[in-house]
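Milestone M4 deliverable, item 7.
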Amino acid sequence: MNAPVTIDTDAMSKGPTPADLTITVRDERFNRGTTPRRWWAGEPFGTAWHNALSATFPRGEAFFVEAVKAHREGADPQLAEEIRAFVKQEINHTREHIAFNRLAEDHGYDIKAIDLRVKELLDLTKGRPAIANLAVTMALEHYTAMMAAEFLANPEHFRDADPEVRDMWRWHAAEEIEHKGVAFDTWNHATRDWTDGKRWRVRSLVMLTVTARFFKNRWADSLELLAQDGITGWKARWGLFKYLTVTPGVVRRIFPAWLAYFKPGFHPWDHDDRELIKVYEGDFEAALMPAE
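Output delivered:
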């Protein structure tokens, strides 16, 4: 069941969040059957990269939810509604990536090892200021929004992928675009007593730290999965590098959007890319299996 939540931003002063923004909670289910081992066009590098990403999502998105919810007190009604819709979407994403990760494990990939490392990293965040967790969430939500826009704008990413896996990633991408401003708007609410300069410095430094850790960890995770597929050494490193930076080159293609994050006064909705959601919804067939 799809539940649209229209956010009326007339009374808000959070930034250029579209006045007619609609966040739709699409309760879809995927990957309850089988998929090919190398579901990304029969090719190992795209399969490894996306499997590594998916392995981080269940714990990572639970972290995002808690980081945003920790700062909802005092939010105006519209932001509070945004947060509620964000939480519902992220809960659904977690459920579907758990199902997808289970299929990867069925094919012999050790996804649990990545999940354990994510748990260990998240355990280190316990006890630190809640605002720090929100800053990390805001940066990582920018990553998910950048990749989501690229995945929907460039069909090459999933053109030859297993159809049901492709639908899951496109569904996830559409909702990441819809709620891409929620963590940022929550940050603005939580830091409303800060100067603009302090906000910019903190979010910029956090993004640099998050970027270094994100690529270090996802690179290592992907190489580990490739090793489980029998691909090691220079062949694994070159193949993964080529996938990320040449064809289809998601890292190269999102670089301008990443750079925009450091602009003073930046807001995720500086670029309104909701047309990509319409493309997704026009193509998507909601013939999905019932909940288990």
